[in-house]
Amino acid sequence: MTQQTPAGSSVPVSSRHRTTWPKASWVFADGGRLLMFGLGSGLLRPGSGTWGTLMGWMLWEAAASSVSDRDIALFLAFAFVYGCWAAGRVGRQLGVEDHVGIVWDEMVAFWLILWLVPDTLAAQAVAFVLFRLFDVTKPPPIRQVDARLKSGTGVMVDDILAAGYTLLVMAVLIRLGAPL
């Protein structure tokens, strides 16, 4: 089954969100859409959220080591607020509140995780797996919040909650002496 979108594409309908995928040219034509689609990583399938998280991880490794904690905190707060607005805007343009290709939410949530976990490959890899697990399975209350909270805020908040679960499990693992 195919469907025409405001983004001008006619592609197979995604079974998860019952929506179409925009053309790359539509995503790359606007800086806000490009950010929301994780510099294009949200166009990759399957598992666009995983690709977006990996893009966030690569960007973190490229930029975060030379940034102060205060500046990271300010950036994360700005990125969250911006994401609430921009994810809502792009979702309206696509006709879908939480399009699976919008991966800014995964990126911001994973940056929060990377900021707070030990700066080792092992810790970051375990955090990556845990975050993707919590983001995909949406344990309570994430699923309920995701169902009730709409627009860009809803897009962002469920991933921040998944990050919270990830950070809690990481804290327990570290406290128990896991070699991270």
Poorly predicted sequence stretches spanning 5 or more consecutive residues:
1-5, 8-16
What is the typical, i.e. mean, pLDDT?
A: 90
For the secondary structure, the number of strands is 2
Domain count: 1
What is the helical fraction, as a range of percent?
55-70%
Q: Given the C-alpha coordinates, what overall shape results?
A: globular
Which class best fits the helix and strand makeup? mainly alpha
Describe the structure.
The chain has helices at 24-28, 31-36, 48-63, 69-94, 104-116, 121-137, 142-148, 151-175; strands spanning 2-4, 10-12. A two-stranded antiparallel sheet has the order 1-2. The termini are far apart. The protein is mainly alpha-helical. The protein has eight helices and two strands; from the N terminus they run ββαααααααα. Helix 5 (104-116) runs parallel beside helix 8. It has one domain. The model is unreliable at 1-5 and 8-16 (pLDDT under 50). Helices cover 64% and strands 3% of the residues. A hairpin with a 5-residue loop joins strand 1 (2-4) and strand 2 (10-12).
